[in-house]
Amino acid sequence: MTNNKLEILFYERAKVTGRSTAYFLRWYNKSSQQIIWLEFMGLMESAYITKEDRS
Predict the structure, then answer these.
(1) pLDDT tens, position by position, 1-55
(2) DSSP letter string over the chain?
(3) 37 close to 10: Cβ distance less than 8 angstroms
(4) Where does residue 42 rank: exposed (0-12), middle (13-18), buried (19+ CB within 10 A)?
(5) Of the candidates 42, 39, 29, 38, the residue with the CA atom closest to the CA atom of residue 3
(6) CA angle at residue 43 from 38 to 48, to 5 degrees?
């Protein structure tokens, strides 16, 4: 996955949670990328579910 795609996903996640994109980039870079990526995708999923429930 390219950095561009990552940044877009982090930006979307940041919008949903109110955290900064940089927070997620730092979080991703500090950790085992494969594990954190799977975890992150799970967070993305629950963020979108929550977003849809609210509207």
Answers:
(1) 456 777 777 777 777 776 666 666 666 555 555 555 656 666 665 555 444 544 4
(2) --HHHHHHHHHHHHHHHT--HHHHHHHHHHS-HHHHHHHHHHHHHHHHHHHHHH-
(3) no
(4) exposed
(5) 29
(6) 130
Q: Compute φ and ψ for 13, nearest 5 degrees.
A: -65, -40
Its pTM stands at: 0.33
By residue count, the chain amounts to: 55
Decide if 13 contacts 43 (C-beta within 8 A). yes
